[in-house]
Request: fold
Amino acid sequence: MAEAVIIDGVRTPFAKSGTVFKDIPAEELGRLAVHELLEKTGLDLNTVDEVIIGTVSQMVDTANVSRIISQRAGLPPRVPAYTVNRNCASGLEAIGSAIEKVRAGMADVIVAAGVESMSTIPIFYYGKRLTELLMETSKAKTLVQKIVKFASIRLRDLKPNIISQTDPLNGMRMGDTAEVLAKEFGITREEQDTFALMSHQRAVAARPQLAEEIVPVYLPPYYDNVAKNDAGPRENQKIEDLARLKPVFDRRNGSVTAGNASPLTDGAAALLIMNEEKARAMGYKPLGRVRSYAYAGLDPARMGLGPSFAAPKALDRAGMKLSDIELIEMNEAFAAQVIANEKAFPSKKFAQEQLGRSEPIGEIDRARLNVNGGAIALGHPLGASGARLMLTILYELRRRSQSIGLVTLCVGGGQGAAFVVERR
Amino acid sequence: MTAEKNIHLSVNEHGLCHVEFDVAGKTVNLISPDVLMELSTAVDSIRSDPRVKGVVFLSRKLDHFIGGAEIDVRKFLNDLDATLAFVDQGRTVYQRIAEISVPTLAAVHGACLGGGLELALACRYRLASDYRKTRIGLPEVLLGILPAWGGTTRLPHLIGLSASLDLLLTGKQLDARRAERIGLVDRVITSKEVPTQADRFLYEILSSGDSMDRKIGSARMRAQNGLMTRFLNRTALGRAVVFQQARKNVMKLTKNRYPAHLKIIEVVQAGMAKPIDRALHLEQEAMNVLIREDVTQNLLHVFSLRTHAGKLSKEMKGAETIPKIRKTGILGAGAMGSGIAQWLLQHEFQVRLRDLNEEAIAKGIKNINGLFEKLVSRKRMRPEEKEDRMRLLSATTGYSGFSTCDLIIEAVAEKMEVKQRVIRELQEVAGDRAIFATNTSALSVTTMAEASRRPDRVLGLHFFNPVSQMPLVELVKGKQTSNETLAAGVAFVKQIGKTPLIVSDSPGFLVNRILMAYANEAGLLLEEGAPVEGVDRAMEVFGMPMGPFTMMDVVGLDIAHHTAETIRAALHLDSEQQSHIGDRLFEAGRLGKKTGRGFYRYEGRQKHGNPELEAVLAAVRKERDMSPRSDINDQEITERLMLIMINTAAWCLEKGVVEGPGDVDLGLIMGAGFPPFRGGLLKYYDKIGLSMIKERLDRYTGSAGSRFSPARMITERAQQAKGFY
Reply:
């Protein structure tokens, strides 16, 4: 079977929604990342077989955003493109799909990316009655009929509805699921805030390292400024300031705050995936490859535990134990959710009762976990995060001359994703 | 008739006749007397063929419909009677096309200019493809003539008065959509299967009785539907307003130096009141007058220089593999770098831009964006097109992305060490696949190329500032520059719509070398006592777009100083004969317009005398131990400025900086704003005669200095009673 390797990657800085990237729609963020990937790798554009891009909030007016991005990034029209969506794991889904295609011999060169602009997600929509009346008005044959239809629109029809941010499966907001885990695992507010502080401190310290994977974005419409770094990490984040924040989801008894959760974020990340032989023939030195990966489903109300369900499957497929893993990138949707996984991983009880495994997964060493900070500081642009974690871990493995890593995320709606990567 | 056919005639079983232009041995269709004869015969046979139910005029060339009449300027001007006969004959043939009784159609794909558009206007219908190279217009006015194959007469009948004058007086070229909007084109078609689409259109016309024709007629009327347009085009008062306004604008624009504009207005105005056959005759009369004008002959001379610009010598044509340029890299995001980048983006090249830090790049991108915004606000580009062009740009502070460039242009600091270092760094990271071009304005390309492993792939591409407005690019051939590289450079410069001028590697090349002598002389005049405004005015009266001091203020005295320094150092020019005033202002930080003070003082858009200048001048005069003269008149100013340019140009010709006098004239017109209606510096003074020039030079050598000592070439030619040409 053909082997797939990851050649290189690049991403935009991540920025809190509604700030520097508020005028840059998702397709343009994606274009910036893919365009720079093609430049950075010096790729002959005619060799590209496919473009796969993960995104969560697909806009009605930019359907199949992958095609728009790939064409605007300068790829020839004959290169096909499609968009994938596995919620928060969409970026990883793009990478997984690319790898499968290469392994199956269906493609040799694939651009895989993830993109999200949470600034541009619409918040309101109009009711069904207004849409229907407008449709009927435009269909009406005579002017009189049109006027009659139009006149039947009532003021209350113009009241916009707020698009629900809850999981339709259980009516919970993502933060509510984090509260569930905090209570189930007895995670304190202090534990969560301490974790959030660590995320900021590590991300601030890692700025020069993270800069290696970032392409600066010159900001339209006036191009007076340039975004060079991630906007999220705060130099002088203090634990007292975190402690002062009010819980957002459970205002009375909760512990999940804006400070210990990942913010809404805009960003994009892209990777080049190739058939290994082809890559060597073209003179590329790959960053690494995916040794195995797995997805797992679980109760949507406890979606944050996704890594605990997916990681053991991926490790089994890799023929490895957690102790073989030198670096872990676990997406920080919520501090509570990461800590819950830290508690579940070494628990024999959890393994036996919930995973049907006799032995626990293993202890997570914080010295190996999210060493450059995570989504609490950097941000979590849903569709882009998976690709960002993959890029970050491959660069960090190279910097440390280490070889085995684990990328894992929880996924809204109750899934987990885990990718075992290796550098050779 | 020639043995080779240029026009192919065929009639299909439904009675559709195709007249296909395919001028033998050329990539473009130009109408020569031979082609016209053939067309005439074809029209005769169509008119007498009872099978023919409809006629389509087409081109078999890939991206060219008909570019107009073939103009061999020398022949054209040598035998004016033959030229006028050719003009007359063309109009007669076109009129016979207009009189064909069955429906006629021009299917335009590619350039449709001058006589090409006039042919289309003689047809009953016009289709045009949405292809990028489909450009429709009447550029005759730019040559000092008028469309005289029926175009001046027919256009107002089709698209109305105001739109017609706009096309006729500017020579502007429209794409298919714009042409459709004003009613010049009846339908926009796609660029594939043009003949089939044309056939289908004619079948529709033939099968629909009158209804389709009426529909098209009303669509044409709708194109001039605005209330104002209707008033201006269709009422006597409105027309009077249009004509008056047009005359006023023309006088403002041409300062009454270009007679064709007024003549065109006159022909349109008189023609509208006459039946078509008599109106057509006015075109001939106007041509008869214009063709004898000095200005027209000068403009035709310039046209011929432009047509031949960048013509490759024999050995260069032998260059077999001319590399194709698709992606470009630009080093340096300053004024020149970003200006070049914008121009390349506008012409749909990918650009990878490098500078040392993000802040410098941001400034460059801001400049690029601003230039595009101007195009958008002037409606010369749609906002979506601007976004598309901007997306072709990417930037880096490293060298990534440069290995896939086909052409890399450097616009970094004007220092040899910096430029050589950049070449070496680039080679380390990006290999030597690309052609490397330097945008230096005065440094030696040959010396720079020594840093390259492939000096044969190094050349100079000297763009002028501001890039978007200056049509000239000097292509500098270093000692080791290969023919392939030069040929690729020429092809590239033409592709981006600039005029190429091949120059050899000499300090200041051609244009800056001459301009520097000109600016220096202006400075000396000032030091001797001539007023700043007086010198500038004399040159404006001569026809220069601005005087030398305004020019230096606009360019920037720092840039003028550095360029002059480089040239002076390389040529060891006699410092006694060098003006100091510019250097003193530069040293005092008076850099011209950008600092608000230079030779003038600037307040917003206003220009005033700079009160500080007198003190600086007094100091210079003291240094030189001289007192100001009060007897410098306009004649001396003009003579000295022109003579120093002529003498320097002769020096350039002797040194082989350029090949011939035409190159000098082209360079100064396109690169320094020398007035085109004069026909060029050397062309103009050839008329005065070299012995006269020599006599004046000798006189000024005595009174003003040895820089006027006549170049050997001038002395020799004056003796032989020859001119530069």
Summary: Chain B has 32 helices and 20 strands. The interface with chain A takes residues 350, 352, 358-359, 361-362, 365-366, 369, 388, 391-392, 394-396, 400-401, 403-404 of chain B (CB under 8 Å). Chain B has three domains: 7-302, 319-504, 511-719. The radius of gyration of chain B is 28 Å.
